[in-house]
Fold this sequence. Notes:
The chain is mainly β and 478 residues long. The protein has helices at 27-31, 136-140, 231-235, 460-463; strands spanning 13-18, 21-26, 47-60, 72-85, 89-100, 105-117, 123-130, 149-150, 158-159, 162-170, 174-181, 192-195, 198-200, 212-215, 218-226, 239-248, 251-263, 268-275, 281-289, 292-304, 307-318, 328-333, 336-350, 353-366, 369-372, 392-405, 408-419, 424-433, 439-450, 469-477.
Amino acid sequence: MRIRTYFAAMLTSISVTAKAKTQTLNLKDLQAQGVSSMEKPQDSSPAQVYGQIRMEGMQYFTPIPEAPQLSFSQLLSARLSALKETSWVDMAADISGGTFFSRGQSHFVVHEAYLASHGNTALKAFAGRKKKDWSEMDRRWQLGLWQPKFAIDALRPEEQGLSGLFLDYNVQGWEILGFATPIFIPSMGPDIREEGGGLVADSRWYRAPSRDFALNNRERTIVYELDIPETMKLVGNGAVAFMGRLGNKERGPWIVTSAGYLPVNELILKRRILMDASEENADVTVSPDVTYHALYSADLGYSFSNVKMSVSYLQDEPREKRPDSEDWAIQKLLPLKAYSAAVDFSLADILSKTLSFQVEYLKVDGGGIVDIRSNGQPDDMTLYDQRLKFTNALSFRVEGQLATFFRRPFVTRFKYLYDYDQRGSLLNTEFLYYPSQKWAVVMGGDVLGVQDENYNPSSFLNQYRANDRIYGGMTYVF
Length: 478
């Protein structure tokens, strides 16, 4: 039996209701305990606060028969950033939250928050949640290998900082960074809950595992139950990492290398199957777990005038973790090697406006998933078989001001991606008109498609090809 599903949602919070008992693991609350850093503007004042409010309606073209309420959503979200200096410590925070009115769902995220040693010195210490450019490839392609993601919407993932202690010696020509932490905060996705013996989520970016299978020429039904370990068993996992940079990334040649031993940002899943040949059902218990990986990356680039070029390499070596009992199986993450190249450039005086362009290519070898038993042998059942959304992809992006209407700017964001392994494409478009300096009217859409629906059915683009959508709304910045 082989089950394919999109189980990344287990990384968020897991609510369990089974046999008159309820368990909850809310990793969102744990994010609020992080403290991290943001880059401070050169003209920073002793205290600054700025943010954005967004109102948005989104319509999917294809309804889901079992969840028609997911065809339309109304979102009110806000993002707030604050910087504060004192005579002995600097503080910063970047947080966001939102509410889906049509679903009654809310979220709160700490993207970054920090305490830092005071002063503009080369050597600085940070305590908290901090973003850093560990890998160009990981940041550009949003792989989530170095830094966790907030991804309740798979087409709008946001990179989050690592949480812990940072010691950073940073000058214009070179940099050395050390990181250590006793805390692990994983990536976040849609909430999953148990309902009627199945695993469900109020999201179009989650695919529930199959509940039907054949045994001895008879159709059986799987009844799922979630088993949540103690929170500290998931969160109390430390990590160490180092990064070095030579050269200035803003001009001339530069190189960045990083290495670390960290928990994998996406929780792995282990499961137990209890089945009686005389029964029509099979009970499957699913439980999240943590495994580690050794991570290495290197970026080489050159920046001049309006053009920036880079090539990147990333190697991921996950540690194999085996279940303690013979009736359990667990996901084994296969190692991967990834290569990428990117060119960024801007063109001025196009219709009297400036547009910026990005061309990127990604190639990943490996990165699969195999469920194994306690003896290390593969199991007959696999929950899902790929770690990354894209593995052999070419991407083109353009952003900038297209025109001026009534002396106000009209801006576009356009991205086209084609994945050769999936034989499919992704198109993102967004248009913004600014009737005033602080207000913007937003319109956009996303289109996913594959050339052959029978080819690689478990791929990301094939699974979610019905999620074409349009959206519109307004944003206010302050």
